[in-house]
């Protein structure tokens, strides 16, 4: 949540910041701002709304060669120009952007900032006011910054500029992501390398509780104690074209269409030259050694985890439980003797998941992260990582990461089964290749889905998704997709559960979308459809080839029974996409949401 870009060099800063912020808009888009330092002063611009509004607001700005920018997802204080970052100290000397939440901001305000006039309702403003107070005491910006940072409790990625210092951006980080990009005669600061790839592909990781002094010609990383740290940069492995929409109207549609390619890339990446599964031996050993798996995830990744549990239990014979990350600490289950924690996260930055990771590491347990971003916090802090290879996912609604997560979980389960000497009549690479072809057939049927939406979801205020067995998990995902981007109140239910209460909501014309891809429940789910149809529901059955009936609304190609979620979710994603389009919703940036949820 929230994105930060900073630049110090010799080029005009404004466009670099605006272009970077536009790439970070997926992290939050309720307000935006930037501060640029020209020869004389700091020019501050803040708007409620999108980067496009900020671009307009800064059209007439003169040349400046350093600055910081921010795109916000509000936590403390409503989205407004006043609450937008950057924030300034009372005298206007110090200007700061922040991503994260300062947990002790009220205490800090009371203890150190009595009498200071605040211009916003944010927790962030406390930090910049504290820098000024500390400057009065220490007469040194670096020291004032260090003293301030050592008082903060919570999560933060921070960039600070001082009107009297044209040579430094002061940077600090704890829990929230931040990188420093290295260039020749310039350096950048960014929440995500993707935002500044046009400038450089060389990046320095910053670890928690470190401070970094970023100048045009050097970067110095220090521990909070002042000790200087030497660190080698890494090369960001992102293709710039992967971060562009190309000819697509929306990133979401592009990412739905990319799913067959992602399946094929996963097959390639997890296969060795002798066509065997290729996984890190350490992961294999950890999987073999554990007696129970605890899957931790949020949202769509949680839904992928539900499917993954089936693989782990049915194929590898390991008991598995799936937990919503934000609830885990309150409802921690009794742990087995030798647990392995598996974190599933597209971004690798989800704060709810990270707080579980920190806790279980303190307890001495091992963790494996399955993520699309290998250098991310969850990846770095876990013992092992499996990469999704899905390419950057930019639309807020997750699509290709979900299917990639399921594919990698299938590979992990089969690899574990084989490592344990179990015989399986299932070749995941071959089956995933069949899935890739099926996905291609489905993404070619957009018009049929668009028509279904036009005829059935046009003006509805609610919709239900029902399914049994693994279809139920896909229904949860289908409902989440529909509600988050079209704002139709949608819920996914186990087919047998609807009659235990929710059927009361069925009225004449209520859309009920039923999934029927599992042979063993085909009869029972169709009976559930009869029950809702008898009460006036507008039912639509999405079935699989081989189980279909003439009246079914849509039939997906046949794939292995265990992998049906990978194909049945595609029409669900497209349903959500066209429903959102039909209602004129902002498909890629739905209201109130952000892609990377870095606050708890
Ligand atoms: C929904 C969606 C979210 C994320 C959730 C977890 O389309 O994208 O529900 O799945 O916020 O995010 P990650 O996977 O990055 O941990």
Automatic annotation (TrEMBL):
The keyword Methyltransferase does not apply. It is found in: Cytoplasm. Residues 2-217 form the Glutamine amidotransferase type-2 domain. Its EC number is 2.6.1.16. Residues 283-427, 449-590 form the SIS domain. GO terms for molecular function: carbohydrate derivative binding; glutamine-fructose-6-phosphate transaminase (isomerizing) activity. The active site is at residues 2, 595. NCBIfam families: glmS, PRK00331.1. PANTHER family: GLUCOSAMINE--FRUCTOSE-6-PHOSPHATE AMINOTRANSFERASE, ISOMERIZING, GLUTAMINE--FRUCTOSE-6-PHOSPHATE TRANSAMINASE (ISOMERIZING). This is Glutamine--fructose-6-phosphate aminotransferase [isomerizing]. It comes from Lentibacillus salicampi.
